[in-house]
Amino acid sequence: MAFLSGLLSIGLLLLLAGHLFHIPWLQQWQHDAQVAAAVMFVLIGFMHLATPRKLTYMIEGWLPYALELVLISGVLEIILGIGLLIPGLRGYAAWGLIVLLILMFPANIYVAVKQLPAPGGLPAKPWYTWSRLAFQPVYMAWVWWCAFK
Hints:
There is one protein chain. It contains five helices and no strands. The chain is mostly helical. It has one domain (2-148). The radius of gyration is 16 Å and the shape is globular. Helix 2 (29-50) packs antiparallel against helix 3 and helix 4 (90-113) runs antiparallel to helix 5 (126-148).
């Protein structure tokens, strides 16, 4: 839900700035949603690279090379997030992010089933870890809409 909060906050701030300062390209929700997604994926990617050990617990024990997988996913989030901002790459980046979100889904299931704390110091309550699963398709739909609608 923190990711969704970031998407909405950034998108709405850009939209508001567009209207307040009469910037036409910031008055388009789809554009602002693209920028919000790019910013959030790049930020999350950097978090994966800056503190990978804080995320390996989500896959340790059932996938090999947990640290390397966290680092690879961080690099991919950064590259694909930036790709959302490049018109010629936007579609490829969107599909890459959707696939990445699908691949990360089992880790979120593992966190919920094993009653582990959510990443980033977010609540470890079952309602929160299970609710995170419901938002994964929302993020996929957001990315798809940003790129293809």
